[in-house]
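Predict the 3D structure for this chain.
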Amino acid sequence: MISTDSKRGRTALMVAHCAGMVDLVALPVWVGTLIAQFRFDARQAGLLATLFLAGAVAASLVLAPRFNRLNGRLVATLGFAAAALGFGIASTTADFGVLGGLHLLCGLAAGSALSVTHGTIARSGRPHRLFALVGMALGVFAIVFLGATPKVVAAAGGAVLFQVFAGVMAVGALVSAFAFPVPDASGDGDAPSQAGAPIPRVVWFGIAGIACMGLVQSMTFSFLERVGSDRGFGLQAVTGVLVALGVVNLFPAALAALLEKRWPAQRVMLVGPVVQALLVVVIMNATGFAPYAVAASVFAAVMIFSHTFAFGLLAQLDRSGRAMAATPAMLMIGAAIGPVLGGTLVQAFGYGSLGAAAVSIAAVAVLCFSRVRPTAAAGVQQEALA
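Done. Predicted structure below.
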């Protein structure tokens, strides 16, 4: 039996996190390819990405409450295998309707696998540290993906993007089949007794705040490549920014792990949405390359850093692992709205409108996170939602 603390178990969780969170890395290339290679408009391209994310949300919402009764290895293996098959088929068509159905099915499959991945991480002895570790793996994956994929797609056509996705999911399925760990029996001795208990009220506020940050992340990230290209910065320069973004993404999770005991989690959660919104304003309104490049290169890092602290705190507040098994839903219920909302705003009002939307959403996120008080961890177990 493979544990979350073993080398094989940690490796499997890192690979599964990268495969399941491919949207966090790929959205700029994904939406940009659908527009540039498949000739869809911004709203259609955003809708396809939204369908994938909506599928992940639905899968997570269904599976998260049942996490403690699921065979994580089986769900992860079958989920990633089904997603690999779906993306493989997607690479053979350019029909919008067919692609829409395949995006939804791939989202359901990958979201199922990601749900059990995050639930397993939450049931580990140190969820903050382990989530930081898988976050670092995602940073390495981002460098490889963003450094190579845009050039390959530009040279060989849009179908290659879906072939790359299929390959990533196939690797996720293979590794999960041989090394996916079982959740720890208990993180602090309480998990079994809490397995059927209601999720604490404050956790729901945290979930809402993360969803808001996920909405801003995907709304902006979907058009990060497009806004650079439309401003005339050029393919090489924009690709360089995406690579720099991937390099920067190596550090926030590691930094979050180092600062776990030094920085209060709630304070990080309150500041994160504000910094995120300010970066969106810069990215979407910059007329020069330098401010665009600097803001874009650190944009995703803010989400990774903030979410690592949020994951660790919410995992402590709900030791059953069920709330964190819903992490795909937390991130993607907002992220699912993001691409189509962003596409609609860009088409109607231009890129600058994304900055105004980000500021408004950040205010809601800060309000939600202000209700998540770590000192209440003992008391909230008695005051939970039914």
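Residues 186-195, 376-386 have pLDDT under 50 and may be disordered.
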